[in-house]
Design a protein that fits this description.
Layout: H1 2-17, H2 36-44, E1 74-76, H3 94-97, H4 118-135, H5 144-172, H6 205-223, H7 237-250, H8 254-267, E2 289-292, E3 309-311, H9 313-316, H10 325-328, E4 330-333, E5 336-339, H11 357-363, E6 378-380, H12 381-394, H13 398-410, H14 425-439, H15 446-454, E7 465-472, E8 480-488, H16 501-506, E9 520-523
Antiparallel strand pairs: 1-3, 2-6, 4-5, 7-8, 8-9
Helix pairs in contact: 1-4, 2-5, 4-5, 5-6, 6-7, 7-8, 7-12, 8-12, 12-13, 12-14
């Protein structure tokens, strides 16, 4: 279809005109990659991050910011300043925040904002991986070093392709359920390096997961031979095994999820012992980091000003007072709770007790920057313990589950406090799910967790979520006029995003996902 032809053309441009100079003297044909080093340059080229450090791999951009606004982690700011500061971009997330039938819907119901770019971006990057995997077949492998280089690049490319398909199928396909996965629609699979002039249909959820596992298992074989990476921005075998654990958990293969989580913990057990000071938890140098790609623009959405967002009261109140994450992850001023997992850029002379401290230290200063650590594509050891705890709880290994869970909690609570979870059965699973919500808050996990809990064969769970969307007298006015209250119902069909309209326009035969028309109540 025209859409995928367009994506493939973009891929060729990226291969020819990335950061590297290695193709400049050759004719413009991707077949002229002369060595595995050339393809490695393609893999790590095309740096994009402004101001802050540039990640080494041209992996993911920032088209997935919307993931944070669909769950129960964010609410509109409930207490704002005197109106001298305001956020001028709330409308961008309206369709996601209120679960509209078409997520590009604007907040006046008069038209549509741009559709989310995740579909286009991920298929572009998948095609980069496809081209690299294909081109590796034709480069020299005459020496041991050349053979090992080919294996390394192949492993990384397959890891990337698997991760992108995993992301796509969890946005646009139903959550994995073994009894229906072979008939549930996922996303189109394209693994050929060629520009294919044909109509693509959506493959099943099962087919997509089969490809993901195939790529990851091959990547594990490859990268097990090449050693650990020196950078968290390059995937090694530990990153592959981490993603395998997460994928198996989503597939409800508890044994494999536990097995791979333990493999990660065995080589990467370190956890940060928290202090009570907020800011800089998600730092590039953290001992918990295993892998990260892309950055984070999340601080620029949170502000103690009108038309802005804050951490939800429900999430903040879920932390016990002796839980150090309550102060390490969040900044609180009166009723405002700000996102502070990353370090403030500067205070501009504002003291933490100043009402405008958060605006100048986070919101304003992060607007033109991306954090060097992703708010969505991040693997860290804390999650490995949670993957292990959840998988073991489901398979009845409750002692192992509690050990993993309490190992994490010991690093998060005030020294000497009672942090141990002793629950069993459903209470243990509930404790683990709550711990995931606290620990992985606003790291791109919650929406996917809510989806998979809804179809979990053991202790399924799906609860209503209520979002309030405020309207104002004028664009630059802090005076509220009315509030529209939207409810996401248990087992709501909006767990699945609609296929972007631009894709359907090019391929009218592609089946869209069914999302309900969203109604609301009005409070003046």
């Amino acid at each position: 279809m025209k859409f995928l032809k367009y994506i493939s053309l973009i891929t060729i441009v990226i291969l020819l005109y990335g950061c590297s100079d290695f193709l400049k003297e050759y004719s413009q044909d991707t077949d002229y990659a002369r060595s595995w080093e050339d393809l490695n340059e393609t893999l790590i080229g095309n740096c994009y991050q402004p101001v802050v450090a540039c990640n080494e791999i041209a992996y993911s951009g920032d088209n997935d910011f919307f993931i944070h606004f669909m769950g129960d982690e964010v609410q509109e700011t409930t207490e704002s300043d005197d109106g001298s500061l305001y956020f001028d971009g709330k409308e961008r997330v309206f369709g996601y925040f209120t679960w509209q039938q078409r997520v590009g819907q604007n907040d006046t119901n008069t038209g549509y904002n741009s559709e989310n770019g995740s579909w286009t971006e991920k298929y572009k990057l998948i095609n980069v991986a496809n081209n690299i995997i294909y081109a590796l077949k034709n480069v020299p492998q005459n020496t041991d070093a050349e053979k090992l280089g080919v294996i390394k690049v192949d492993g990384e490319a397959r890891f990337l392709r698997a991760y992108y398909y995993f992301w796509l199928v969890n946005l646009y396909g139903k959550p994995y359920l073994a009894s229906t996965a072979s008939s549930d629609l996922g996303v189109p699979i394209k693994i050929s390096e060629k520009v294919e002039d044909k109509l693509f249909q959506r493959n099943t959820v099962q087919a997509v997961y089969d490809l993901i596992l195939s790529d990851l298992l091959q990547a594990e074989t490859d990268l097990a031979q090449t050693g650990a990476q020196t950078s968290i921005y390059r995937a090694d075998v530990t990153a592959v095994r981490f993603l395998l654990s997460r994928v198996y958990l989503y597939m409800q293969n508890w044994e494999k999820a536990s097995e791979y989580a333990q493999k990660v913990i065995d080589v990467h057990p370190d956890l940060v012992t928290l202090s009570s000071t907020f800011g800089n938890f998600l730092s590039k140098s953290s001992v918990e980091n295993i892998f990260s790609m892309g950055g984070s623009s999340l601080p620029s959405f949170f502000s103690d000003s009108f038309k802005a967002f804050q951490t939800s009261d429900e999430l903040y109140n879920s932390y016990a007072n002796n839980d150090l994450r309550k102060n390490a992850f969040w900044y609180k001023y009166n009723k405002f709770v700000g996102y502070a997992k990353v370090a403030p850029v500067t205070s501009d002379g504002k003291d933490v007790t100043d009402p405008q401290y958060y605006y100048y230290s986070y919101f304003y200063r992060w607007q033109n920057s991306l954090s060097p650590i992703s708010d969505k594509f991040l693997f860290r050891s804390a999650e490995a313990y949670l993957l292990k705890a959840e998988a073991d709880a489901y398979r009845g290994e409750e002692d192992d589950s509690r050990t993993a869970l309490n190992t994490l909690r010991r690093a998060r609570f005030v020294s000497g406090s009672n942090y141990e979870v002793k629950a069993t059965g459903k209470d243990l699973v509930d404790s683990i799910r709550l711990e995931r919500r606290r620990e992985l808050a606003l790291e791109g996990q919650r929406w996917f967790d809510l989806r998979r809990y809804s179809v979990c064969e053991k202790y399924p769970e799906s609860n209503a979520i209520v979002h309030k969307y405020w309207y104002y007298k004028e664009r630059n006015s802090s005076k509220k006029t009315e509030c529209h209250v939207f409810t996401f119902e248990p087992n709501d069909k909006a767990y699945v995003l609609n296929i972007p309209q631009s894709v359907l326009d090019y391929n009218s035969e592609m089946q869209n996902n069914e999302r309900p028309v969203r109604i609301y109540t009005v409070t003046k």
